[in-house]
Design a protein that fits this description.
Shape: elongated
Helix content: 25-40%
Number of strands: 20
CATH architecture of the largest domain: Beta Barrel
CATH class of the largest domain: Mainly Beta
CATH topology of the largest domain: Elongation Factor Tu (Ef-tu), domain 3
């Protein structure tokens, strides 16, 4: 009987202690509710309403970086011959007019000989015109002879201009060595393809470009979509691109093309994303992981700006705003964080308001 009485007394003391702790927690909640935003704090915060939206689904794709094939210059062979010296490598930065390679060409030598002959013909036509003009002044030559001499000179000058233009077009000049042709870069950029090696025969009727030059200010991301995910991926969908070379960087873009032809072997469709590349961080052939976001048709969840979430002691909180003198710290459960928005599975209802700017500052001020 004595033991039972002692046990009941001890139990009462324990419950009393728990009640005391509970009351203490209540006081802490009361302090939070009585916290008042100062005028300075009100100027720096931002309040957003909890919205109900369809949840973004995610399809992860594998792909790689490629140069923008709509913004390249392909350097074609203008003359047949043998490659002598290739001065640039894949990935090199080049400037307009820079020599990329030289070609030894019998065809160019033939044009150089034509140039010599055209110059001689022009000189002869000029002298003939001078003599004819002199003879006409003395009454020996006729007006018809003078017109013929003028026509001969005009033809000689046209032939000279034609041969000079051909030499300039193939990469050499009237004053240069016609047997050696210089292949130059038509613009500033990077060598993204090189299909020329020393001692390689070249034919002017070959449609294969010797070099491809791109400025790389914009690049393509080409990724493959498996057949099961084709319906989830559409033109205009937002994507996030990650690379192994820059794991901490996220590149945002949109799908601008979905292929209509399925790869018969891999059973995939190719999609294309165009990204700005102002710092040249993204280089052709880099591996890329592409996350495509699409709207789940039958799934809606409350969501808030991601900046409203405060992570503290392994839990997630928001500061709910009722009024400037009525703020509440509330724990929430996160379904998914998708860039600028975070979806909430428990803890918030649509229409409630949360602090989305300087949330951590207000949270810390309340907790103090």
């Amino acid at each position: 009987m004595i033991r039972k009485t002692v046990f009941v007394a001890a139990l009462s003391l324990a419950l009393g202690g728990l009640t005391s702790c509970h009351h203490e927690d209540k006081k802490q909640e009361t302090k939070i509710e009585n916290f008042v935003l100062s005028d300075t704090m009100q100027k720096i915060i931002k309040v957003d309403e909890v919205t109900l939206d369809k949840v973004d689904g995610v399809v992860n794709l594998n792909g790689d970086i490629s140069y923008d094939q709509n913004n390249v210059i392909r350097v074609m062979p203008m003359v047949s011959g043998i490659a002598q010296d290739v001065k640039v490598n894949l990935g090199d930065r080049v400037t307009q007019g820079q020599t990329l390679a030289t070609i030894k060409s019998a065809e160019a030598m033939g044009l150089q000989n034509d140039l010599v002959n055209a110059r001689a013909a022009e000189t002869l036509a000029k002298k003939n015109l001078e003599v004819t003009q002199s003879m006409m002044d003395k009454g020996v030559a006729s007006q018809r002879d003078l017109l013929q001499a003028q026509q001969d000179l005009a033809k000689a000058e046209a032939d000279l201009n034609r041969v000079s233009s051909q030499l300039s077009l193939i990469g050499t000049s009237a004053a240069g060595n016609g047997a050696v042709v210089a292949i130059t870069s038509p613009d500033n950029g990077f060598i993204v393809e090189r299909k020329l090696n020393p001692n390689q025969p070249i034919r002017s009727d070959d449609a294969t470009p010797l070099f491809t030059v791109s400025d790389l200010k914009r690049v393509w991301v080409l990724a493959n979509v498996y057949e099961v995910d084709v319906e989830k991926v559409k033109v205009g969908d937002s994507v996030e691109v990650h690379t192994l070379a820059h794991p901490d960087n996220v590149y945002y873009g949109r799908i601008d093309l979905v292929s209509n032809a399925l790869d018969p072997v891999a059973r995939t469709l190719q999609v294309r994303v165009v990204l700005d590349n102002p710092n040249y961080e993204l280089k052709p052939e880099m591996y890329a992981r592409v996350s495509v976001r699409f709207k789940e048709q039958d799934k809606e969840m409350p969501n808030v700006p991601s900046a409203a979430i405060v992570f503290d002691k392994s839990r997630n909180y928001v500061v709910v705003y009722h009024a400037k003198d009525n703020l509440e710290i509330r724990e929430v459960e996160i379904l998914d964080a998708q860039g600028p928005r975070t979806y909430i599975s428990a803890g918030l209802k649509p229409g409630e308001k949360v602090i989305s700017k300087a949330a951590l500052l207000i949270y810390q001020a309340i907790r103090q």
